[in-house]
Here is the input.
Amino acid sequence: MAGRIRQEDRECPLSRTVEHVGEWWTLLLLHDLFDGYTRFDQFQENLGISSSMLTARLKTLVADGILERRPYQTNPVRHEYVLTELGRSLRPVIVAMAAWGNSRLAPHERSMILVDAETGEEVEPVVVDAGTGRRLDDSRAYVFTSGPAAGPEMRARYPR
Here is the structure.
């Protein structure tokens, strides 16, 4: 049945994450927020997004606890959008996605690079295991397994 969400998908942390931040405009909004943008007009001007789409995306991010909406002006009332702790925790994801995109380009084709703020040297972000420091890009060394809350479908997909 089209549009039906499988139980396995409701349990999957990747599916739940994509549900919250996987929409194209949402990722671009997060990028702008990490660059210091906080106001509706800034987002709209920078992204060229329609006001109705921007309003919907911002409302969803606030409802999901990723952003906080705060007044910055009283007459007339104007609001800004500020990343919550949960929202700030998405920065490594956005950085990793941008780095992945850059890795597919020749150095002279890159319009944006990540650098060390102190030295100005370009850096290569990688995802590592916090305990060992080992890179997680080896699909043979690291695999998913079912967790304690997994239902039958998830346990069948990821047996221990």
